[in-house]
């Protein structure tokens, strides 16, 4: 949860870039963390549930029109994310990775785990993903997402 992440940042006095002391940068992080719940998380999770879990639970394939609608909802918020939060910056809060970037990419991995490569036709998003993975460490990133990336094989 966001509350737990903020608690950990404060308790363990993590490097400033994760949750910047600069008020404008912190406001960008807070803005994203508040926005993402019903947008990136909401739409990404919905696609994952619709494409992976519902067919698994019901044993029935998903009607294509249902999946199209859910995918379109996610595409709308991805466009908003690129335009409003990424703009032309390397990371959400500026030139360094922050908690906002980490939370964003973790949430976006759910649709990827469902087999929807949302980075494929979005070069700005793909380049941002590459930067976040490099900042965290590619091996750690892959280990952290191993379960979700194999979910479609259930």
Automatic annotation (TrEMBL):
InterPro entries: Glutathione-S-Trfase_C-like, Glutathione-S-Trfase_C_sf, GST_C, GST_C_Theta, GST_Theta. Residues 22-154 form the GST C-terminal domain. The keyword S-adenosyl-L-methionine does not apply. SUPFAM superfamilies: GST C-terminal domain-like. It catalyses: RX + glutathione = an S-substituted glutathione + a halide anion + H(+). GO terms for cellular component: cytoplasm. Its main location: cytoplasm. Its EC number is 2.5.1.18. One of its GO terms (molecular function) is glutathione transferase activity. It is an enzyme of class 2 (transferase). Keywords: Cytoplasm, Transferase. GO terms for biological process: glutathione metabolic process. It is found in: Cytoplasm. CDD domains: GST_C_Theta. Pfam families: GST_C (PF00043). Belongs to the GST superfamily. Theta family. Homodimer. This is glutathione transferase. The lineage of its organism: Eukaryota, Metazoa, Chordata, Craniata, Vertebrata.
